[in-house]
Amino acid sequence: MNLSRRARRGAFALAMGVLLVSTGCNKLKARDELNKGVVSFRAVRYKDAVEHFKAATELDPTLLNARLYLATAYANQYVPGSQAEENLQVGEQAIAEFEKVLQADPQNLGSIAGIASLYFQMKRWDDAKEFYKKQIQLDPENPEAYYSVGVIDWTKSFQPRAEARAKLGLKPTEPLKDKKVCADLHTKNWDTVADGITMLNKAIELRPDYDDAMAYLNLMY
Predict the structure, then answer these.
(1) How far is CA 50 from CA 39, 170, 207, in A?
(2) What pLDDT was estimated at residue 192?
(3) In the 8-state DSSP scheme, what is residue 193?
(4) What is the pTM (predicted TM-score) of this model?
(5) Pairing with 51, which of 19, 42, 164, 183 sits 20 to 30 Å away (CA)?
(6) How far is 91 from 112, CA to CA, in rounded Å?
(7) Is residue 58 classed as helix, strand or coil in its secondary structure?
């Protein structure tokens, strides 16, 4: 009986040893794939980089740098404005990989900023604004995040105004004088406009020579 127990313990210890060695080898291989991916990434060979980063994440799912690089490599291949199915798929893959990083590290600033930027490029304004505000919470001294929210707010407030003018058949240079339409637009847009003004003023406070923010602030007023 004692010999049987010793044999089982020995077999278990051997199995654990093999498992640890295998795990260690996989981690080393993952690091090697990560390094190869970084070389391709820096050479702007993003498709090659993606394959290396994917291999790294499969060998070691805990290697967050590989996951973050994978997401960024996808993001760098996304072409803003293109509705091609393959392009849209690349954008979604980038977001999915950034989300996986956030599952392990909910305050990963690179992933939050990456998702915000992609949603902005996709013109998914509400989603982009949500992630830019998360970015602001983690990095409150970054003027670009405030500026981006301001641009989103201007875009969202401009669209109802443009639609109202079109319904009235107004030319671009004609003022909008219909009091009821103006009142409706004020009700619909006020919170968005106020938020945009606050965000753009903050961007300028952080970067006094921020010309783009000044331009959008004038448009918002």
Answers:
(1) 11, 50, 35
(2) 95
(3) H
(4) 0.83
(5) 19
(6) 15
(7) helix
Q: How many CB atoms lie within 10 A of CB 2?
A: 6
d(CA 1, CA 130): 64
- Consecutive sets of 10 residues in the chain, 221 residues long: mean pLDDT of each? 53 47 75 94 95 95 94 96 94 97 96 98 97 98 98 93 84 82 90 97 98 96 91
Q: Where does residue 154 rank: exposed (0-12), middle (13-18), buried (19+ CB within 10 A)?
A: buried
Burial class of residue 149 (count of CB atoms within 10 Å of its CB; 0-12, 13-18, 19+) = buried
Name the residue with tokens 């009091």.
Answer: 179
For 207, the token pair is: 């970067």
Q: What is the pLDDT of residues 80-135, one digit of tens each?
A: 999 999 999 999 999 999 999 999 999 999 999 999 999 999 999 999 999 999 99
Sign of torsion over alpha carbons 106, 110, 113, 118: negative
DSSP code string of 94-127:
HHHHHHHHHHH-TT-HHHHHHHHHHHHHTT-HHH
- CB neighbour list of residue 65: distance below 8 Å, 6 or more residues apart: 34
